[in-house]
Amino acid sequence: MFVMNKIQLAMKGKVDEALGEIEYQLDIFMDNGYKSNFKIEKYLKQLSFKKKLVVMMRESWDGAIAEVCSDDPDYLEGYSFMTKPEKKRYIKFLESLKLGCDKYIEDNQ
């Protein structure tokens, strides 16, 4: 069993808190017709996030992108409320979060 030390727990807590806000932004994105002006780089800059935290955060969207793109019947059913164009915009938004993290990491080395 993997046990986190206090520093790792604090880092995970910071990442989880930031991800909560980003999940909220995803909800807003969907409520606004799959459109958003949210820029993750700007948000991370406001938080003064360290590179290591952003690296931890970046991995969070891999699973969501894989789910939406999956041909698995359960995932197809789970995302059936989205039209094909909405699904494309959702994937594009998730990918923009990853790219924004990459840009932030690159700019803050």
Task: Give a written overview of the molecule.
The protein is mainly α and 109 residues long. It has one domain (9-107). Helices cover 75% and strands 0% of the residues. Helix 1 crosses helix 3, helix 2 packs across helix 6 and helix 3 runs antiparallel to helix 6. The longest helix is centred in the first third of the chain and has 26 residues, at 6-31. It is globular and about 40 Å long. The model has no long low-confidence stretch (mean pLDDT 92).
Quick structural summary:
The chain contains six helices and no strands.
What's the Cα radius of gyration?
A: 15 Å
Query: How many β-strand runs?
Result: 0
Mean pLDDT: 92
Provide the domain count.
Answer: 1
| Amino-to-carboxy terminus distance | 33 Å
What profile does the largest beta sheet have?
none
Low-confidence stretches: none
Outline: globular
Proportion of residues in extended strands:
under 5%
* Structural class by helix and strand composition: mainly alpha
**SS summary, helix count:** 6
The helix content is over 70%
| SSE ordering | HHHHHH
Write the layout of secondary structure elements.
Blueprint lengths: L5 H26 L8 H8 L3 H8 L1 H10 L3 H6 L5 H24 L2
List key phrases describing it.
single chain; 0% strand; mainly alpha; 109 residues
